[in-house]
Design a protein that fits this description.
By secondary structure, this protein is an alpha+beta fold. Strands 1, 4, 5, 6, 8, 9, 10, 11 and 12 form a nine-stranded mixed sheet that branches. A six-stranded antiparallel sheet has the order 15-17-16-19-14-18, sandwiched between helices. A hairpin with a 2-residue loop joins β16 and β17. α4 crosses α6 and α6 packs across α9. The chain is globular. The mean pLDDT is 95.
């Protein structure tokens, strides 16, 4: 079972939260962060290069020093304050008619090594190194990772009861998404949360934040080796996470656009597709995939339905069942010559939050030649793959809304 603990969050006072809270560091580039950051925004801590004119490099020493200075200043000015006790927290996000609730807690870093925190994506060492630097310089987890877990009745009951109370925070972000936040400070509820996770929840599943999770595990290992009196109970053994029951989460599609047809004419390309798909033109109206193994394609101003033929997927194998795997093998590789999705510059990826209109516009502009929309994977598929220790192809899942940064920070002191 997983190990968790409550913690003393460093967080904004209620009247400051909408000014301090910010999108995650990796959804904005420096120019976007600079344009969006108000004077109190956490972006001055997570993207400190924006405080220089012209902006500094993200990995420059002066940027790191500025991040440390700003984190200290935000606390001195009262824009961030440490709670007086160790608590759990409830965090809800509402996008349209969908609301998801998660528990904010400290996960146990060694659980990543022992397989109780399970991943479905590969990580890059350089990105892990970058995240480690940020944890080291601040001695804190400034931003949380995003975990899922299999539903648990006791945890659901605590969340439902807590959500009936007045929230500590209640605000809308720049996208119109609603964020609410409660403090779980009842000793009975705190004990229930701890007991339920540690006796009934077998594993956490990384939904978003693979590099931050890997970095947290490495920081823990590094600090434990430097401490001759290491016990496993030190604060550096734990890191910040928001954990959602699987039934609350909505996974969105993650789509592909390709710059050219690999030397084929549109008619030749359509003919090549017919080897592995039933191809049906749907005209100029947007067409969305209707289920697993059905794809949407936009080419030369028209939408197409592509139904994968039998034998092109294997529903008994969690990886070969994935539509991204079928598309990669039968279209991107075999027809378009794209062998490595991570490095090939001819392909780009579009999160489902942008809608099918984004696919159409990128093709109509002439930037791209063809676009593909996929049916979203399910949380059950993600968990099945992670349970088997397998790795999904890159850019398979898109979760929205993104976790806001700054609602809770975990100090390693």
């Amino acid at each position: 079972m997983v190990r968790v603990k409550p913690f003393s969050a460093i967080r904004p006072p209620r009247e400051m939260v909408s000014k301090v809270a910010a999108p995650p560091y990796d959804v904005l580039d420096s120019a976007e962060a600079a344009a969006q950051a108000g004077p109190e925004s956490l972006l001055h801590i997570t993207r400190p290069e924006i405080d220089f004119c012209p902006p500094a490099g993200e990995n420059e020493r002066r940027s790191y020093d500025k991040a440390v200075e700003n984190f200290r200043l935000w606390q001195e000015r009262g824009w961030l304050r440490k709670d007086p006790g160790e608590f759990y927290y409830l965090y809800s996000q509402t996008m349209g008619d969908h609301t998801q609730y998660g528990i904010v807690l400290c996960a146990y870093a060694p659980d990543y090594e022992n397989g109780r925190i399970r991943k479905h994506e590969l990580t890059r060492r350089d990105k892990e190194d970058d995240r480690m630097v940020h944890v080291r310089i601040q001695n804190a987890n400034i931003e949380p990772v995003f975990f899922a877990y299999k539903d648990n009745a006791r945890l659901n009951a605590v969340m439902e009861q807590t959500a009936l109370k007045e929230p500590e925070y209640d605000y809308a972000d720049a996208n119109g998404f609603i964020h609410r936040f409660w403090v779980i400070d009842s000793p009975e509820d705190i004990q229930t949360v701890t007991d339920a996770f540690q006796s009934e929840v077998e594993a956490f599943y990384v939904a978003d934040g693979h590099h931050r999770t890997a970095a947290a595990a490495r920081v823990c290992k590094e600090l434990s080796l430097l401490n001759p009196f290491h016990t496993g109970e030190e604060e550096y053994n734990f890191f910040l996470a928001v954990c959602f029951p699987q039934s609350r989460l909505k996974v969105m599609d993650y789509n592909r656009v390709v710059r050219d047809l690999n030397g084929l004419s549109p008619d030749e390309f359509l003919s090549a597709l017919s080897r592995d798909f039933t191809v049906e033109c749907k005209g100029e109206s947007e067409y969305r995939p209707q289920g697993l193994h059905n794809f949407s394609m936009y080419l030369q101003g028209r939408w197409y339905s592509l139904d994968a033929l039998p034998g092109r997927y294997d529903d008994s194998d969690p990886l070969k069942r994935l539509d991204v795997e079928t598309l990669s093998r039968c279209v991107l590789d075999r027809i378009l010559g794209i062998k490595d999705l991570r490095t090939d510059k001819r392909i780009d990826f579009v999160g489902g939050i942008r809608g099918l209109g984004e696919l159409r516009s990128r093709v109509d502009s002439g930037e791209m030649a063809v676009a593909f929309a996929l049916y979203p994977v399910s949380m059950e598929q993600i968990m099945d793959i992670a349970d088997k220790g397998a790795i999904m192809p890159p850019k398979t899942t898109w979760f929205e809304p993104k976790l806001q940064s700054g609602l809770a920070i975990h100090s390693l002191d």
